[in-house]
Amino acid sequence: MKAIVVGAGVIGSSVAYRLAQAGAEVTVVEERRIGGGTSSVTYAWVNACEKLTSHAYYKLNFAGRQAHEDILSEFPGADWYHRPGVLQWQNAEAEAGARDGTDPLVKLKQLIDWGYPAQLLSLEEVRELEPEIDPDVIGNAPVIHYPRDGWLDPVPYAGALVAAAQERHGAHYVNAKVSGLIVNGGRCDGVEIEGGDPIHADVVVNCSGRWSNDVANRREHQVPLAPTVGLVAYTPPAGVTLRSALRTPLLNMRPDGGGRFLLRSNELDRLVAADAASLPSHPQAQELLARAKTTIPALRAIEVEAVRIAIRPIPRDTLSAVGPVPGLDNYYVAVTHSGVTLGAFLGEAIADELVRGRTRSELAEFRPARFFN
C-alpha cells in the first residue's frame, strides 16, 4: 500500500511512523517544518481528566495518554514526555470538547470511578509540593492533583517519529504545499503539489489540522471546523523551582525547559485576533505575565521573552473527527483539538484500520460521517 500523510505535526508524524512500521510505503508531505503548525503553539497537556462529556470521549483520550507512555519503549532515551504532575483548582476553564464541572468534588469522584489517577490536596499539601505558589491565589478552593499527568514537547516528538519512519521503515519526506486532492470517479488517487509534480497513492491521510480543508479543496469533502485563536507566551529562564503544571482560574502555566515557563489562558485567547503580531508587548501576553507573577511571586522580575499565536483546529461540534470521508474512497482525515493527547494513539489506530483492516471501536463515535448525513 502506498500512503500519503499530509502534515507532520504530532498526529501526522504518529500516523506516518505507524503506517510505515506496519508495512505501508509512506510519503509525508509538510508545507512548513516538522511540528511547525499548531503543534508548536500549545500547552500540550496529555490528559483525559477534562474529557468528561461522554465515557467514549474520555476513553479515547485515556487511550491517547496510555499510548504516549507505551511509545517511549520504542525510543530509548527519549525526553519529550514530562510527567511531574498537574495541579488544578476551580474555576479553571476546560478545553474544547471537554467539561470542567463547577463542583470539583463531583468531578473528582467521576474521575476516580472511571479509574483516573487523581487526588484531592489540602492547601498545606500543595505548599509542600510547590512552595512558590502564593497560597492566596488558591484560597479555600479544592485542589485536584493529577500525579501522573504531564505534557509533551510536540516538536521533538514529531521530529523523532518522522526520522524513525524514514530511517527504520523507508518513509519519504517531502517539504511542499499540497494544493488539493486528486479525485477520479469518487476516489482519491493522491495529492496535487503546488509548483511540483503530483504524488499518487492508494490512500491519503489528511493530518494537516487547521489547514485540512485547504487540502480537501472541494466543499463536499471538507469536515466543518470551528477554529479558535490561541496565544502562548514564554518567559526567559527564571530560576524558579515550580515543577508541576498548573491549571488555574487566572492562567495555565508550566515549565518549558531551561528554566522558562509557558503561559496561556482560554479567557484571554478570546481577546486575541488571528492576525495579531506575535510580540512580547501584546496586551494579552502582558496580562498573562501579570497573572503568572500573582500566582508565583518569585517571577516578579521577569518579562515576556516570546509570543506565538496559532489557530486551533476544532471540528464544529468540538469533538474529534477521525476516519474516512463519505463519498470519497481512499481518503481518510484526522482532525481534532486534542491532537497532542491523541496523536500517539491515532497513529496506532489508523495503521490498524488502513493497513491491517481492523476497525477500531474507540473511534466509532468520532467519525467524520456524522457531518455528512
Automatic annotation (TrEMBL):
- Keywords noted in UniProt: Oxidoreductase
Is-annotated flag, keyword Oxidoreductase?
Answer: yes
Entry's transmembrane regions: none
Q: Which GO terms describe its molecular function?
A: oxidoreductase activity
- Residue intervals of the FAD dependent oxidoreductase domain: 3-352
- Which named protein is this? Glycine/D-amino acid oxidase
Query: What positions belong to coiled-coil segments?
Result: none
- Matches recorded under SUPFAM superfamilies: FAD/NAD(P)-binding domain
Q: Which organism is it from?
A: Bosea lathyri
Q: Which Gene3D superfamilies match?
A: D-Amino Acid Oxidase, subunit A, domain 2, FAD/NAD(P)-binding domain
This protein's source sits in the domain of life called Bacteria
Question: Can you supply one Gene Ontology CC term for this chain's record?
Answer: cytoplasm
Q: Which InterPro entries match?
A: FAD-dep_OxRdtase (IPR006076), FAD/NAD-bd_sf (IPR036188)
> One Pfam match, by short name?
DAO
